[in-house]
Protein 1
Amino acid sequence: MTTATPTVGAGVQATTKTSRAARVRRRLNSRAATLVSIVIALLWTVPTFGLFISSFRPEDQIKTTGWWTFFTDPQFTMENYQEVLFSSSSSAGQLASYFINSLAITIPSVLFPIAFAALAAYALAWINFKGRDWLYIAIFSLQIVPLQMALVPLLKFFSTGVTIAGLQVLPAWELDGAQKFAQVWFAHTCFALPFAVYLLHNFISQLPRDLMEAARVDGATHPKIFRTIVLPLITPALAAFGIFQFLWVWNDLLVALIFAGGTKETAPLTVRLAEMAGTRGNEWQRLTSGAFVSIVVPLIVFLSLQRYFVRGLLAGSVKG
Amino acid sequence: MAFARSRQALAVAGVLGLALGVTACGTGNDKKSSKASSPECAAYEKYQGHDGKKVTIYSSIRDIEADRLAQSWKEFENCTGIKIDHEGSGEFEAQLGVRVDGGNAPDLAFIPQPGLLKRFADAGKLKPAGADTKAMAEGNYSPDWLKYSTVDGKFYGAPLGSNVKSYVWYSPKMFKEKGWTVPETWDDLIKLSDTIAGTGMKPWCAGIESGDATGWPATDWIEDLMLRMTSPEVYDQWTTHGIPFNDPQVAGAVDKAGMILKNEKYVNGGFGGVKSIATTSFQEAGTPITAGKCALHRQASFYANQWPQGTKVAEDGDVFAFYFPAVDPAKGKPVLGGGEFVTAFADRPEVQAVQTYLASGEYANSRAKIGDWVSANKKLDLANVPNPVDKLSVQILQDPKTVFRFDGSDLMPAAVGAGTFWKGMVDWINGKDTATVLNGIESSWPK
């Protein structure tokens, strides 16, 4: 009896809340709201659109007039793209080769954290061991550590190894040239894991307990459950995190600059883009086409995986 | 299913990584053989004996200039077998600190700010230059230059490239048509400005926008006028805080610059009023000269590369530069400039060999022949400098009578020289009075 009263109260509150939510929803579905959102979307696209137009304009035009003059005085050229992609002088771009570097950095930097985080999240959610909750809280709270704080220590870790009280515990990595990719993978994986574990843990822990117990009764071991039950069910979450991580790593300049360096062997597109305007920034017309070359891949990834993205976000709210 | 797919992708990524590793190793190893004994290598004999060694260089030089650097030491690499790995970055100043702290310092770094050089030297991170490098540098550069890379009596490296900042760009063609002449003194310069303003054209164009570094072109104005109105000695006191930043002598120089920069009759040709100076990028600031919308633009020698394509930069061409005139002819016109210093974070013999080579006359000539480069190296042969503005700069720098001073904002502590001084100049252009701005900068000087 005593417990029933607050439940009823909560129920009433919930109904008013839903009706309020319904009202908001109705309003947001109105024609005026749609119009406003379209206007906002257009406004947000204008700078990108301007950059896109600019990338097809000749250098002297870009430097002297705004992109909108394109409509009154259309002058079209592919020279900017030609220059940044295939120019024979190594100064002007050759983005094609940095494109490969970007892929070589991004793909493992997405797959490693997904693989480790899925395993860790499963263990933290469904395997009973001592100190599990504290471990989870520790990992969760690591999210608040800004990665900038870890840059110098991590760089030291790679270049001089680990020494405790004069004793060399771990040797220096001593990587050279293309081997430096490993450093970037390591760094990105480290920085991504706390969030990845947190996100995937939320999904995995909400899978129905009956499912796990039925599998255990049938004699399935943890690896078997993980592979055949958990992984297929959390695909949307994996995809959602995958997109996050992909976009972050692809657009990252800082981590790559520090751990991969700016040499041709390892530098990704972002590092190259930052250098492309020349020592004194006088060749900035190249940035227009360079920017579009670099966003092609994120666009493809986002557009092709966006249904997972939405499903992944919704799955968290509805299933709970 | 999803797992199978990701496993596949993992395998692909692994193979990709391996393939990259293999190709990288492949290209790294096949350049070991040097033709050390061939006759053209005779000049490099004293640098030999380090076959197969590698030296890494980190600098802020990138793009086409980096290509030219690589080209300039190619023969050295072939003859000595030392492989030079150069990396240029726009974030050089910040990244160098991170790399040094992280134990990942480059062997050599081209540091363009004596202030930064001093910081690394004080922290004990830089290695003093070897005896060979020192001897080479002392033979080839004037003491004016070497004192900027000497900290507490220890010499850390020779200058490499330089630029001359005391220039006013103009159009010889326009001057000829209108019958104007290149002014020799400040008073002539003001008279000329008035004449030009009388024709309805705004005589000066200026721009100090430069991203994070917005304001620096205005600091160069002040520095040039400080040198001309006071003396190189007072200038040194100013940059080391021997006199306060709001000293009347500094205020005098700022007001003198204001005679032009804050004069609505004089600026800002092709862009608008005085305030447009703060929003005009320094790269574009001089271009109205080629369009006939302004006549004068004060900027360093490196501005030669900023003109629109097809502009002839020569004494009888579309644009050229004259030496920023003296305010008081008796005090002369000391040259304000900048440059980078070749400093070492390692003292391996091959690193010292490269450091010595970069200080040599052979290197200066090899680099100058490729174009668009100025150095204060005394062994640099003028015949090897193709570009007329660079030629003029080298002449000025090599003249034994020239008094040289380094760009002041690069000498001051970063909080001022790359901070409040820049910002103060932007406020000043935007209408704040000289005294308020200088008091603000003075109070920001680190105690």
Protein 2
Amino acid sequence: MKKLSSIKGTTKKNGFTYALVIVAFAVVSLLNANGVLSRSAQGLLVPACCYIVMALSLNLTVGVLGDLSLGHAGFMSVGAFSGIVASMSLADAIPNTVVRMALAIVVGALFAAVAGFLIGIPVLRLRGDYLAIVTLAFGEIIKDIITCLIVGHDKNGIHILFNVKGNKSVADLNLAEGGQVIIKGAQGATGTQTIATFTAGFVLIIITLFIILNLVNSRTGRAVLAVRDNRIAAESVGINVTKYKMIVFVISSALAGAAGALYGMNYSSLVASKFDFNTSILVLVFVVLGGLGNMTGSIIAATILYVLPEALREFSDYRMLIYAIVLILVMVATNDPKIKALFGKILPHRKKKGGAVNE
Amino acid sequence: MEFLSYLINGISLGSVYAIIALGYTMVYGIAKMLNFAHGDVIMVGGYISFSVMSYLNLPGWLSVIISVVVCTILGIVIEGLAYKPLRTAGSLAVLITAIGVSYFLQNAALLIWGATPKVYRSLVSGTMKIGSLSISYISIITIITCLIVMVGLTLFTSKSKTGKAMRACSEDKGAAQLMGINVNRTISITFAIGSALAAIAGVLLCSAYPTLTPTTGAMPGIKAFTAAVFGGIGSIPGALIGGLLLGIIELFAKAYISTQLSNSIVFAVLIIVLLVRPAGLLGKNVQEKV
């Protein structure tokens, strides 16, 4: 009976998460349809969805797997540019934008998954801060490599040039007549058709949630949690640590790639340096403030922290300063034992229950 | 000749990385935290020195001293306000706080000095000519400063009482406390020394690469952190070797392979080193006990 009630608890919690996303989507869509949202607010909808998916997927690596990744934006970048290439080169073959967008997102996810697998082989052998610094290094390498790419397509297919010395230009692609340049090296992807929609972002969030929540509550998920909590104990009961770590890492990369593809298709021009260390850190802040392993928290934190600085535009120069101060204050307030004790006195009913430690 | 001049420039750049990496390595060794705000202290150091020279018209050497003093105080204040309350918290919480501090410093600098790049006037100009080889004086000063700092720190940590206390704290905080060492104060002193080094590095970096913006410190900070890991984080000679190697690899990659990919090559070397020696070149590989 005890087991049954615990299963019910998880279902209830997951149901709440889904309901939250669906209600939020319905409310925002309704506001948008009635013209309440300003133009700048409308522009935030798709990127906000992308960052929510990024936060969810990073939470899978950092919260569920327990490995600190500082290069998550790299996978977003791989997904974004492969998604853009897929979407642009299929523009004639598939005129229907919804189908093309879905296909581009799948392509982005696949490329990011392959990148995640290749990077996972060396990365997952390391531990702790060393693992973190290597993911940071891979993130920067991906950024540099994409900055060197020149990609175009014509009737013969896709042409790719690798501009290592900085002496090649778009003309070296030798495109046939009617061909189109998609990625122009350091200038990034320009002239992309912006086919991303808010509905697509919503669907992507729901799919991401479905994948992650089911994974966490599956046999694989339990094995991964065991590895996170005590690697040696998990190994000694026969759990293949590398295999499970790799599964989670690849899924997390693929989801980040999907988010990246959607993000890429939302802007007519996009440079690789957008996905640098700072973007990885931004997403990490969402995850940590939302709570490690807590998917609902990630969604809420990503929404608030992405929309708030944009909404504070009127404070212009001061907004990032305020953001920084709030970030420090929140971290100090939630972690300082003295302040915690103070809160405990003022709000005695908010004491944590024993079981909530791992949340 | 070309090769030699690249080598000397590489060693000079590597010396700057080594000085920054020392700050990282000392703080990591003692507080076990990745201090991502360290790179921004470098930037503040550069700006202070710039302001003293340009607005107050004081000589260069005085600007260095003022910059070191300001950064030391800044380091102590940051440590006291942001990091001290988190002594018992998890490493991720401290990491995010450090990122918050980094954002704060960058945006404060943006408000004070504006987004337009400032052109830093090099402390010493001119070059020395040996045959057809020309070496700028600032490269020589950078390399000498790095050596002095390195020897000074090694002597400080091995001979002085405070230095010994630092090593004790990094070995075992609980045991150090039982021996009567004030752990909290020792950590504060470590931050102060690290920030002072960052100020020196800031001045040297800006002398070699004279554009100064609020994000000047970010990339050198990340690379110096890489250098610290490369040499084995927590080890002082490791920081020197890591920094020098990184600087030399970076300049050679720029000169002979690709300017655009030079950072990637540096990071790729780091990854390979970590795969062969997971704790860095001179790091201690601690075995896990069951």
